[in-house]
Amino acid sequence: MIRRWGYVGITAVLAVVVAIWAVPELGRDTVTFVTIGQTGPDGGPPLPSLSPDLLIYPGTAQILLLAVGVGLLVQIYSTAYLGHHPRYRSYALVIVLFLIAMIAVVGTTNLWVLLVGWEVMGLCSYLLIGHEWESPVARAGAAKAFLVTRIADLGLVMAIIVIGETYGTYDIVGAQVAQSEQPRHATLIGLLVLVAVVGKSAQFPLHTWLPDAMPGPTPITALIHAATMVAAGVYLAARLFQLYADSQVVLTAMAVVAAITMLMGALFAWVQTDLKRALAWSTVSQLALMLAAVAVGDPEAGTDHLLAHGVFKALLFLGCGCVMLAVGSSALSSMGGLRRRMPVTFWTMTAGFAALAGLVPTAGFFTKDSVLHAIERATDGDRGLAAGTAWVLLVVALVTTFVTAAYATRLWVLTFFGAGHGAGPHGTLGQDVREAPLAMAGPLVVLAVATFALSVGQPLHLGTGLLSTVIAVAGVAAVLVAARRGSTLAWAPRPLAAELWLDRPFSRWILALGTGASRVVVELDREVVDVYPRGGESLAATISRGLGLAQSRNVQRYATVLAVGVVMLVVIGVVVS
């Protein structure tokens, strides 16, 4: 136990250092420290450098505090949830590395340092998702997450190169200063950034890796979905927004991706029979809502929702872990009737589900309201996005609000109400189900308090706030009425239950294409490339056999051949002369 808490102490020290650095910046209106990269020889871009070039401002400070705060709670939670595991030491240390990588991404202005942190997060996610590597499902989920995000990360690499070549600096602030003076290549930079964001934040069409990452330990899903991995994608889109804000092509593409993903993720979350997978699809949908705020020119609204979402989604995933510990499964069919047996988990997760549904007075309501208000303002066509596109995005966001409230209520009902028809590790659900240990329940309470505390000081937009509240309440009421009438809440049309078969390109077609391509390469290597070494081998063998005929090891034969040769030479000499 002492060793387990030692890793908590390491994370706590990291959190304190970040807090000392970040907290003083929360109340400031201006940036107090800026580093602008130097130009290279002849005015060209500088050579790549890993100079830290740290820069922090209020938005950055909030995300840093979210990352280390959730990371610390995850470490505390893990002492009880996973402390018995023989590989706990590597697990805990990778979490620390994960947090350091996130700090590098958020706290630097050097694009190459950002890239290093970005890639280290990808490596850490691979290791943590595949922590239970004995399971084929865990290995497959880790490999899929790693490959999909690595392919998309090529977009970030190319974007960094283009930024350096265009503005003569690899410093974010320096590039933004140069862009404000003479915008160039905004569409190319923006599209490359969007590719990276789509992969990292699991947006359509590279969205399928995130739900398949669920075999990882539940505390890790909380960390990845709330404060680090997927949050980095939206943060990058907001951080580099100024470099592509003038491109309507990029903003339109981003809006289309966001619209498709937010509604698709919400519908997929509704039909899930597994609580963890439903929450994963919820993350996909909520990230799209944040991306929509960036697309309409209000990245601050997107990062505000990112902060609130990080808190209440960490709460829901950690609460899911408590429920899984009690019933032995994340399947909704194994749950029900937990309201009285697990009161702390029930009330804290209720706060989390309310924030997910966007209900007052949670932080989720206020930040979602800000995003909807930003989209509504963009319908005038003056924010870089065509008015028609903004209207479509607004309608989709409102429909998503209804579906989100409905599936959040469905998950809440199926988890905590009813007679409890599942079976846990100790038999029927009523025999040995109890509240989670303090190390697990304590972080839930902290996050539940934060879910309400973050709403303090948030602006309220009466128009969109009232409309979104009515829509959310309608979604909640529809599910509660259906449940009261005896519905199983199992509405799942086959296309939605199969998630529109969108994973087939990754799980079948690309795999088959890769297998076919590898066979072609093997055949070409064997039948074309290997012809030359095989031909040389055959020629050498033939010559060797010919020489072998002359090497009979018979002295009399050697003398006979020599004599015959001499006679033939004499005859030839006589004839010629």
From TrEMBL:
Gene3D superfamilies: 1.20.5.2700. Its main location: membrane. InterPro entries: ND/Mrp_TM, NU5C-like, Proton_antipo_N. The keyword Transmembrane applies. It is a multi-pass membrane protein. Keywords: Membrane, Transmembrane, Transmembrane helix. The keyword Transmembrane applies. It is found in: Endomembrane system; Membrane. It comes from the Bacteria. Residues 109-375 form the NADH:quinone oxidoreductase/Mrp antiporter transmembrane domain. One of its GO terms (cellular component) is endomembrane system. Pfam families: Proton_antipo_M, Proton_antipo_N. GO terms for biological process: ATP synthesis coupled electron transport; electron transport coupled proton transport. GO terms for molecular function: NADH dehydrogenase (ubiquinone) activity; NADH dehydrogenase activity. Residues 58-91 form the NADH-Ubiquinone oxidoreductase (complex I) chain 5 N-terminal domain. The chain crosses the membrane at residues 5-23, 55-76, 88-105, 141-163, 183-199, 220-238, 250-271, 311-332, 344-366, 386-408, 438-456, 462-483, 558-576. This is NADH-quinone oxidoreductase subunit L. It comes from Aeromicrobium endophyticum.
